[in-house]
Amino acid sequence: MTPERPLWRTAFSPRWSALLLLALAIAGTMSVLGVWQLDVYRSKTAEATAKQALAAPVVLQSLFSVDEGLPAKAVGRRVTVAGTWGPAADQVFIADRRHGTQDGFWVVSPVKLETGAVMVVRGWVATVDDPAGVAPSGPVQLSGSVVASEAADSSGDAAKGRVLSSLRIPTLVHMVTYRLYDAFVVQTALDSGTVPSPAPAAVTPPSPPTDHAGLRNVAYAFQWWIFAAFTLWMWGRMVLDAHRATDEDDDAPLKQDQEVEPVGSSGTVSA
Question: Signal sequence span per UniProt (predicted)?
Fold first, then answer.
């Protein structure tokens, strides 16, 4: 029986080496197309997110009602709020908020609207006794950005006083006697109303959530990468099949020789 031919001799034969180079070129092109589709997705996402952040301010009530939950499309939107500052007793402070290199508190005050009220992050103070944290009163019109409730629970803090560890509407609804919108507004400008003096330090609104536009391009990218992998797999499969066929061809003459009946030498032919 002839020794089995090594697989590498088949793979690196001129024919299959040429096909390997072709397969690598095709797979490389497909991989580049996949990266390009991913770049298209990132570009569309960045453009959509920036467009959302730069959109003209709208009235808060036009995005959703006090009876609705906060829609995802409203998070990060710039809005205007016109109403009257709520009772000073309903103002709260959110602890452990960084401003520069100093820890302090966010000052959150209610603004009563025609339907319900919205909690407004007016700014930052170093201590809850800071004069800048005194609750305002009277009519007000302000601009700001919509932010959602934080995940951490602060219901235990509500029973102890007006200093909370997190910014959560589910906690605040039990601390006031009126309905609240399911969102906060981080104040960026006081358009009209009494300007407090001193005023809390401005708080920068969080960046708007990423608008994942062009998710179809991500699917296209993965399709191209799968095609690239399939191309190389097909080359390997074809080489393996060719190698097996070559071994069978090499063993065929030996099998034929074994099947030939040898001429017997023990018998003699009589005349």
Answer: none
Residue with tokens 């996402």: 45
Give the residue extent of every domain in the chain: 7-45+214-253, 78-193
Rounded average pLDDT per 10-residue block, the chain, 271 residues = 69 87 93 89 73 80 93 87 94 93 95 94 94 93 92 77 91 93 94 81 78 76 93 91 74 54 51 44
* pLDDT tens, position by position, 21-48: 999 999 999 999 999 988 888 777 777 6
Q: Helices 215-259 and 14-53 sit at what angle, rounded to 10 degrees?
A: 170
Averaged confidence pLDDT in the chain: 84
Nearest to 190 by CA among 144, 234, 229, 159: 144
Token pair listed for 124: 């930052």
Torsion of CA 47, 52, 57, 61, to 10 degrees: 160
**What distance in Å separates the CA atoms of residue 205 and residue 74, rounded to the nearest whole number?**
14
For CA atoms 254, 255, 257, 263, the dihedral sign is positive
Asked if residue 198 has a cis previous peptide bond (ω within 30° of 0), the answer is: yes
Q: Is the dihedral of CA 119, 123, 125, 130 positive or negative?
A: negative
SS3 content of the chain, % helix, strand, coil (to 5): 40, 25, 35
- The continuous run of DSSP H or E covering 187 comes out as strand 180-193
